[in-house]
Write a structure and sequence with these properties.
heterotrimer, A mainly alpha (596), B mainly alpha (204), C alpha+beta (451), A: mainly alpha, Cytochrome C Oxidase, Chain A, 17 helices, 2 strands, 62% helix, C: 451 residues, alpha+beta, Immunoglobulin-like, Cytochrome Bc1 Complex, Chain D, domain 2, 4 domains, five-stranded mixed sheet, 14 helices
Chain lengths: 596, 204, 451
């Protein structure tokens, strides 16, 4: 049995058609509804993360200006901000949100292979969020151990949220991992097994490649976090000593002995580094498609782009200890991990070149999604290059644990993926909602977000060069840090508030458009990939109406010489390929004939 | 399908339907089986990471090896029997017969339950000898790894119990074919995991 | 169009920002110029790539923006170009990595002539140990840590007897002498960082990590903890003094060896009682305190704390400008002739019967609990008993009015900012984190419930 017969896919869909409002919008098994649910929960959580960041930025920029921000709250806020943004916001939004929406549509499938499991995944995700949020309301509050949750301090008296907070955090992570695994199995198997007729792997849009490889990374990397979380829960709740060495807590020796905090760090970063690419690869994929569509040009070097995604995915499992150069691990590891880390720069740089070369000799439509996509290329170049500092082990000595690190990873996995998120949301908004967003508002949103974010993070690198340590509640009196550093910190905070406020434009745009926006035309960007070729806008449950589509070409047939339209949808057969009308016919450039 | 050949394709050069009139699946198996295989790889990653942690932790000075109870050999035998029965059931369904299917399939599960009971007994006896969870990391790993393995078995038993119910309710062999195949695969996997864990625990 | 211009301007702006920025590495004070060299190589390579790629990006956006009648070029790939770019990138990466690996090799391999010292971190203080005359550090174990042996030095180990123990966050180092710092932690992860030395390393409980450097510039530099170590992370500061060998030797000679700290005779409580007579006039026969005379309750306070404060008054660390009440103490503290006398009286005070002081401050207990539990308990403990380990005195059952005035003095910079008051400085940071008198009174009211 080499395939799932079309009839089977259809029969299955028949069974899951919703019969009531609740089945349609709440306990829906439609991947598109689940995608929106995943996305909404992630965005809500992300807003909490953003609000926390504004609060601790206020403290950093204007110390003591807000009464309730005491050191305890500050550490809780930075911890929860980090964990929320990396795991519960970005990972969930890219995989659960875009993965869910795009994979079946771009693969020409009716749904995921296991719609019920998919539904279970989003509800499990919601439970993990509820547990996470609950930690704000328990005694002691959420954990303030830093988002990396390094033992032994996670469970010790001097750390905020060391009793209930950390336990809820670990449980929430474990539940989240279960949700991601259920979702991830679905995404991976759907890409592998549920592609429609004619859709070979190499005909897939890069969005699918990015999400697919990221899913594989997630499936293999999250177990490391699960293992670490289980062992830490044992240490915390049952008194074992996996990670806990003999330590003194506020003058009293604790009943632990011999555990290895470094072992935890290895496990954590064995998850943590691929996690960076779990966020980055879907962004790479999505932005490639946005750039290509709006440049009216095929993505340049498609094969190189796929290879780079696969290579980065593979390499991401052997670079983890570059987060641990100064952790006290055996220093000889530094040679190996510095080398692998800098090797990963090569495929990453190739991606950047190919994005820019996609624009070269294109016919660039500067729509809002394109603004965000080009903004991404700029910030990603910046963030990628600063990674070469931190990856190079000796340069990490002065820079690690300073603001340089914060600036680097926010540029590369905060600002850049979020710009892609906005590019993708604007780009696919007409598909998802059937309405066209307001272009002017979207461009304002871009300018404020893009310029504001750069105003936050460019100066922050220089605080890092200066040697300002991260995770300091106040800078205090430090001889080598001039007073002007505090002014810079204040300006960063002001920029941060601007950027946060600018997001209101986005929500206004979305909400207003959903209510009053004008109806989008079908395939407004003239996109060649399959998701825009669904018969309905937005696609109905089952996506494809009567028959599944058949794919005759790759996803990037833009501005093909000889064709009179500047794009040819993937499901257009050769025979129906629109050609130039007679009078403009130029036999030299006509390649469509040669194929026949 | 060769991965490298696929990745070397130049998709813009070929137009038209490739791969015949059927949709393209990479693997020649039902989706459930592909998914289960994926899951088994993930589970192996989890067990491997625990094992790697075990070896790293073992190097530290406070480690005192645990002398595993001899009963583990008996338990191992039970799990082997369990796998054998599942294989038997699988052979029956793939030859399209029905005879002895209930005995084989239900028997496999029962032996798995006996295995878990046996594991609990080793826990009891270790506790009785003063090998508590917290007294040494070797003990902690023993409880953790055996417990985790048992949890995976319990998950399998949940699926097994649902299929058994259907079998008792008179379901036909061909309807349960996939389910029985998947259970068998899963049980073999857990047997291999157990043998590996047992080897690690017994030799260190 | 606007986008191309903005990207162009951002590139130019970044360059201007870089050259105008007063924020750059602080002057190096160790022999790690090679690290700075590697940074410069990386900075210029990446800087040029940043400028070139983004200018090209801006050019593409400007040049190939949509125009009527214009059509994009169909170009699936260009193998030659892509191979060329990969090769170019690889060369750049090697140019950055190679010097990095060489410098790392010299960081990993400590030169043989390097001396050894130990840096010990605990929540939230730095302490240091020198190997003494035999050039060898004695073994140590966290299980042996006590108030009398804060380093946990193994008393059985002959190598440890002559170790010089510095129970103070200021490290002294001789100029021009390479030194390997062995790093130990008693509780959580910490990180020993001196920005001027360029190198840093975590201190991990359960193992000894290291770093090495050769001080090349005299002066006093900040020691910061750069690994999140709990709520007091940002107040975990120390200093390192790099001085000529002779000055260093002279300083080292004044520091006690481990054997000396262990051999210290027990304090003479009877002598302390006699000396206390002078104190009793204000603080009361039983150390119960007297608010009218601004004398806080002493009974129940831990001896190490009383001892430290008496020394501070003697040395002028406390009771200076602006501290009228403290100034009264200076004369009395100076009546104690030497360290032994101070220890005696502190020991006597510890023997006094501890009856909780009468509450005089009212406030919102719930709010006080909230603040105390979140921020104060980490050092002063959940029951307000305090501990030497975090340098935190007892609060529960002590004079609440005194607590309020002292917190205000910390906030106003009257107490704790003297350069010698390393522990008071931490309290300044915590006290200024409180919003004002009302919160202080709430906390005092809560502390009153912990008697």
């Amino acid at each position: 049995m080499a395939y799932v017969p079309l009839a089977d896919q259809d029969k299955e869909m028949e069974m899951h058609h919703p019969h009531s409002w609740v089945e349609k919008y709440v306990f829906s098994q439609d991947h598109k509804v689940i995608a929106i649910q995943y996305g909404s929960i992630a965005v809500f959580t992300g807003i909490v993360g953003l609000a926390l960041s504004i609060l601790f930025r206020l403290q950093l920029g204007f110390p003591e200006s807000v009464d309730f921000i005491d050191p305890n709250f500050y550490y809780q806020a930075v911890t929860m901000h980090g964990m929320i943004m990396v795991v519960y916001f970005l990972t969930a939004l890219f995989l659960g949100g875009f993965g869910n929406y795009m994979i079946p549509l771009m693969c020409g499938a009716r749904d995921m292979v296991f719609p019920f499991l998919n539904m279970l995944s989003v509800w499990t995700f919601l439970i993990s969020i509820i547990i996470l949020m609950a930690s704000f309301f328990v005694g002691g509050g959420p954990t303030g151990a830093g988002w990396t949750l390094y033992p032994p301090q996670t469970a010790m008296e001097g750390t905020p949220g060391h009793d209930m907070g950390i336990i809820l955090m670990l449980i929430s992570l474990a539940v989240f991992i279960v949700a991601t695994t259920m979702g991830g199995l679905n995404y991976a198997v759907t890409v592998l097994q549920y592609r429609c007729r004619g859709l070979t792997m190499m005909r897939l849009p890069l969005t699918v490649w990015g999400i697919f490889v990221a899913t594989i990374l997630a499936l293999f990397a999250f177990p490391a976090l699960l293992v670490a979380a289980i062992m830490m829960l044992f240490d915390t709740l049952l008194g074992t000593s996996f990670f806990m060495p003999a330590v003194i807590e506020a003058g009293t020796p604790l009943d632990h002995n011999g555990g290895s905090p470094i072992l935890y760090q290895h496990l954590f970063w064995f998850f943590g580094h691929p996690e960076v690419y779990i966020v980055a690869l879907p962004a790479f994929g999505l932005v490639s498609d946005v750039l290509s569509t709006h440049a009216r040009k095929n993505i340049f070097g498609y094969r190189m782009m796929v290879w780079a995604i696969v290579a980065i995915g593979g390499l991401s499992f052997i670079v983890w200890a570059h987060h641990m150069y100064v952790s006290g691990m055996h220093p000889y590891f530094g040679f190996f991990f510095a080398t692998t880390t800098l090797i990963i720069a090569v495929p990453t740089a190739m991606k950047v070149y190919n994005w820019v070369l996609t624009l070269w000799e294109g016919d660039i439509r500067l729509n809002a999604p394109m603004y965000f996509a080009i903004g991404f290329v700029f910030t990603f170049i910046h963030g990628g290059l600063t990674g070469l500092f931190l990856g190079n082990v000796v340069i990490d000595l002065p820079l690690s644990d300073t603001y340089f690190v914060i600036a680097h990873f926010h540029m590369v996995m905060g600002v850049s993926p979020i710009l892609v998120l906005f590019a993708a949301i604007y780009h696919w908004f007409p598909l998802m909602s059937g309405k066209m967003y307001n272009e002017t508002l979207a461009k304002w949103h871009f300018w404020l977000t893009f310029l504001g974010a750069y105003a936050i993070y460019l100066p922050m690198h220089y605080l890092g060069f200066l040697g300002v340590p991260r995770r300091y509640y106040v800078l205090g009196e430090t001889d080598f840090i001039p007073a002007s550093a505090q002014d810079l910190n204040a300006s960063i905070t002001i920029a941060a508030i601007f950027v946060a406020a600018a997001q209101i434009l986005f929500f206004i745009n979305i909400i207003w458009t959903l209510k009053n926006g004008k109806k989008a035309e079908k395939n407004p960007w003239g996109s060649a990939s399959l998701e825009w070729q669904a018969p309905d806008l937005p696609p109905k449950h089952g996506n494809w109406g009567e028959d599944l589509p058949t794919v005759y070409r790759w996803a990037y047939d833009y501005s093909v010489p000889g064709a009179h339209q500047d794009f040819i949808p993937q499901n257009t057969p050769e025979s129906e390929e629109p050609t130039v009308d007679e009078e403009h016919f130029d036999p030299d450039t006509d390649e469509s004939k040669a194929d026949v | 399908m060769s991965l490298f050949k696929t990745l070397a394709e130049k998709p813009w050069e070929t137009k038209g339907v490739v791969g015949g009139l059927r949709p393209e699946g990479v693997f020649d198996s039902p989706n459930e089986k592909v998914t289960l295989n994926f899951f088994l790889v993930i589970a192996s990653v989890v067990f491997s990471l625990f094992t790697v942690s075990y070896f790293i932790r073992m190097e530290l000075p406070d480690w005192q090896p645990l002398s595993e109870p001899g009963q583990l050999w008996l338990n191992t035998g039970l799990l082997v029997l369990s796998s054998v029965f599942f294989q038997w059931a699988r052979n029956i369904v793939s030859s399209g017969k029905q005879k002895n299917l209930t005995t084989a399939f239900v028997g496999g599960g029962v032996f798995a339950i006996l295995f878990i009971a046996g594991q609990l007994m080793t826990w009891e006896s270790l506790q009785g000898q003063g090998y508590y969870l917290t007294s040494n990391p070797a003990n902690a790993f023993y409880y953790l790894l055996t417990g985790l393995h048992a949890v995976h078995l319990l998950g399998g038993l949940w699926v097994w119990s649902k299929s058994s119910m259907r079998l008792f309710a008179g379901a036909e062999a061909k309807d349960l074919k996939l389910s029985i195949e998947l259970c068998t695969l899963y049980w073999h996997f857990l047997l291999i995991v157990w043998l590996a864990l047992f080897a690690v625990l017994a030799n260190t | 169009m606007a986008l191309a211009v903005v990207i162009f301007l951002l590139v130019i702006g970044s360059i201007i920002f870089h050259f105008a920025s007063p924020w750059w590495f602080t002057d190096i004070a160790a022999d790690w110029g090679s690290i700075d060299f590697t940074i410069n190589v990386t900075f210029w390579v990446t800087g040029i790539v940043f400028i070139a790629t983004n200018l090209f990006l801006a050019y593409c956006v400007w040049k190939f923006r949509q125009k009527d009648g214009h059509k994009a070029v169909y170009e699936p790939e260009n193998t030659k170009l892509e191979v060329g770019l990969s090769a170019f990138t690889t060369v750049g990466v090697i140019a950055m990595l190679a010097p990095g690996l060489f410098v790392w090799a010299s960081f990993v391999n400590v030169p043989e002539e390097a001396g050894q010292i130990e840096v010990l971190a605990s929540q939230w203080q730095w302490q240091y140990r020198y190997p003494g005359a035999d050039g060898q550090l004695g073994t140590a174990d966290v299980q042996l840590v006590s108030i009398d042996n804060p380093f946990g030095v193994n008393p059985e180990d002959p190598n440890g007897q002559d170790d010089v123990v510095v129970n103070d966050p200021v490290l002294h180092l001789p100029m021009g002498q390479p030194v390997q710092a062995l790093l130990r932690s008693h509780d959580v992860l910490h990180n020993f960082t001196v920005a001027q030395f360029r190198v840093k390393m975590d201190l991990v409980p359960g193992l000894v990590s290291y770093l090495w450097f050769e001080p090349t510039r005299e002066g006093t530099f900040d020691v910061l903890c750069e690994e999140l170590c709990g709520i007091g992370h940002f107040i975990m500061r120390g200093a390192v003094v790099v001085e000529p060998q002779e000055e260093f030797d002279a300083w080292l000679a004044t520091q006690p060896t481990f054997a000396e700290t262990q051999a210290q005779s027990a304090p003479n409580v009877a002598a302390g009682q006699a000396a206390y007579a002078a104190c009793a006039s204000c603080h009361g026969q039983n150390g119960e305190g007297n608010q009218a005379l601004n004398a806080p309750k002493l009974a129940g306070q831990q001896a190490w704390y009383v001892e430290r404060q008496l020394n501070y008054f003697k040395q002028g660390v406390r009771g200076g400008e602006g501290d009228a009440e403290g100034a009264q103490m200076v004369a009395f503290a100076n009546m104690l002739a030497d360290d032994q006398a101070v220890r005696n009286v502190a020991a006597y005070i510890e023997t006094l019967t501890d009856t909780p002081a009468e509450p005089t401050i009212m406030g919102d207990v719930d709010n006080g609990y909230d603040i105390y539990d979140r921020n104060c308990a980490a050092c002063h403990l959940d029951d307000g008993a305090g501990t030497w380990y975090t340098d935190a005195p007892k609060l529960a059952g002590m004079s609440d009015w005194y607590f309020v005035t002292q917190i205000q003095k910390f906030r106003d910079g009257i107490r704790g900012l003297h350069p010698e008051d390393d522990y008071g400085e931490q309290m300044v940071s915590m006290a200024t984190a409180m919003s004002g008198l009302e919160e202080i009174q709430d906390v005092a009211a809560y502390i009153n419930t912990m008697r």
